[in-house]
Specification:
mainly beta, 5-stranded parallel beta sheet, 1 helix, rod-shaped
């Protein structure tokens, strides 16, 4: 990561300091051109007095002539003002993530601000490269500090992490899909004039939610088997033959013993039956949900996985389990993942910008910003 720091200045490292030069450098209004990031200055021909060149420390002043900054600490705020105090002074402070950089979990307030975040010098964080995240627990870029007069000037991309599909393991929810990650987080509850400037061609995208895991396939039906048993006694006076435990008699009879005159004794017999069930086939597991669209899935498939086939049933008419339901598709940028017939739901959509105490301006449309962004 090659983050760079530049400044409007430092001015007057040596040589004479003229009022005309102070007027040019400190009444100037700087802007950054879209093409190439060059700076252009504009000024006026009005005169400037020493009282206008006092260092302004008011944090609610959004455009101080001589800003409060670490580099400007020698410039007087009230009296004993001298031009020599402007040695190595600055007007603006810039930090730039270049277009060649592709970083994850970019911590903006951890960059080199030289203790100027809580001072009123106009500061710009130029995001020309790509910020991303591979986990929904972390935003692609974040800022968490008190700041005044800070602009996030976005020419590049800030992309939230894709929500994982339900049932995909390693901490993913089941059966619900995981909500998509947020792109940019800004928390500066005590700050003022914090602006996200959206440029044409930039992308601040909340991620898509993961699809819900598919429902388990229906189990098959049980089979029903029938067995028969025939039992017979020897030649005897009384009937002592009966069905075994768990069997039911459905037919019985006797006949005379051939060796006995007058049929004083009989052969006794019974026919028995029993029924038992065989196991049904088990329904197949539902397919896992699809991965949402995000920094870690910018062009890959969103489709949920197919469900597993059911197992075969037992004998005697038992039927096989049904194939599990296909998992829900992951959501596109800042869209919820698809649900299924399972008991959960698709993961929710990620947001473009979350936090508090900021405003958003610039070229805001469906190409540059996807997802909610209002504080």
């Amino acid at each position: 990561m090659a983050v760079s720091v530049t400044k409007a200045g430092p001015y007057y490292s040596s040589g004479e300091i003229k009022f005309s030069s102070l007027r040019s450098n400190f009444r100037a209004q700087v802007r950054r051109e879209t093409s190439g990031g060059s700076e252009s200055f504009s000024t006026d021909n009005n005169s400037i007095s020493a009282s206008q060149l006092l260092r302004n420390t008011t944090t609610t002043n959004t455009s101080p002539i001589v800003p409060d900054a670490q580099e400007n600490a020698n410039i007087s705020t009230s009296n004993n003002w001298r031009t020599s105090q402007f040695r190595n002074s600055i007007k603006y402070y810039y930090v730039t993530l270049p277009s060649s950089d592709d970083v994850t979990n970019f911590d903006i307030d951890a960059q080199t601000w030289n203790s100027n975040l809580n001072k009123n010098i106009v500061k710009v964080m130029f995001i020309d490269g790509t910020c991303g995240s591979n986990s929904v627990s972390s935003t692609a870029a974040s800022f968490n500090a008190t700041a005044y007069n800070l602009t996030f000037d976005v020419y590049g991309s800030i992309l939230g992490a894709a929500g994982r599909g339900g049932g995909t393991g390693s901490g993913a929810p089941d059966p619900s899909g995981q909500s998509g990650g947020n792109a940019l987080s800004i928390e500066s509850s005590n700050g003022n004039n914090i602006v996200v400037l959206v440029r044409t061609g930039s992308r601040i995208y909340g991620a898509g939610g993961g699809g819900e895991r598919g429902n388990k396939g229906a189990d098959g039906t049980s089979g029903k088997c029938r067995q028969e048993e025939y039992k017979q006694s020897g030649c005897q006076q009384s009937n002592t033959v009966s069905c075994s435990s768990g069997w039911s008699q459905y037919q019985s009879g006797n006949w005379c013993c051939e060796t006995k005159r007058g049929c004083n004794a009989n052969y006794w017999w019974v026919r028995c039956e029993r029924y038992y069930s065989t196991a049904p086939g088990i329904g197949g597991a539902g397919g896992t949900g699809g991965l949402g669209r995000g920094y870690n899935n910018q062009s890959g498939s969103l489709s949920g996985a197919s469900g597993s086939g059911g197992t075969s049933g037992g004998d005697c008419g038992a039927t096989a389990g049904k194939t599990g339901e296909t998992g829900g598709d992951g959501g596109e940028w800042a869209k919820a993942g698809s649900g299924t017939n399972n008991s959960g739901n698709g993961g929710g959509e990620g947001k473009a910008i979350v936090g508090s105490n900021y405003s958003v301006t610039g070229t805001i449309n469906s190409d540059t910003v996807k997802g909610a962004y209002n504080p």
